[in-house]
Design a protein that fits this description.
Largest sheet: none
Number of strands: 0
Order of helices and strands: HHHHHHHHHHHHH
Number of domains: 1
Structural class: mainly alpha
Distance between the termini: 36 Å
Strand content: under 5%
Number of helices: 13
Length: 308
Amino acid sequence: MAAVSGVRGGAGVWGWLAGVFLALAVVLVVQWLVGWAEVGRAWLQIPPSALAAAMLLMTVSYLLRAARLARLAGVAGVVATAWQWVRISVLHTCAVNVLPMRAGEGALPWMLKRHGDLSLPRGLGLVVALRLQDLVVMAALGLVVVVTLWAGLMAGALAALPVLLLGRWVVRTWPGWLLRWLDRGPVWVARLAWPLRLLAARPPGVYWLGVAAWTVKWLAMALIIHAATAVAPVRAAIAIAAAEVAAVLPVQGIAGAGTFEAAVTGALTLTGLDAAQALQLAVILHLFILGMSLLLAALVAPLGKRRG
């Protein structure tokens, strides 16, 4: 047991060291290829109205995430005030955005145990349920974006409802199918299937709240990209897609530094965009996402703490 604990502890240390290395590498590479002064000038060129609109959209996205979390956690019997759900959701997202190697996901089970007495294993299962739904939502929205870029705005608009309804059907049906199969297995397999039981309960509005949250977030990111660099819509969509892929990678630097910039820059250079310009766009987009996360976390952290 001690040996296993030592291995896990060593893996955690190496993970943090890798995160620090990636973050430092980003700082050096940006200075070498672009220059942080140039990044700062690009930031100052963003119109205040565009920045304010993007910040408002991102804030709405956080509120929608909190509403979705409240609905899904309600199935598990967790009760909290609306403000507490906002605080929990914002702090969880900030932890995910700041800590390396997806370590921030552990913040949600801990807060749910503190606020709602939900066991840590079940809290972790709730995180898994959220991420499973996110995969379906992002796939559906991504397909709509691809259709829009390929066939035009009208085609994308016509495809949106059928594609999103298909995603809803998937979320509502496949957990039940999998559960019927898993329940035939050993007891421990059935226990691991608890995230599927949360989704199979079909809490009202959870899927559409996820769709709304991701849509508003992507609109905020697209607005920042356009305001900062005025790149073509196709390239903006590619940058957003690469950013989301980087966000789910298990290997990340502190605050996602390194993997985020590498994914966005690599994807954009494949479209023919200059590497320096692609890296500058990646840094600006990352700073916006991280800055909003830290700002909102700083606003909600001192308020709404549990008493007693």
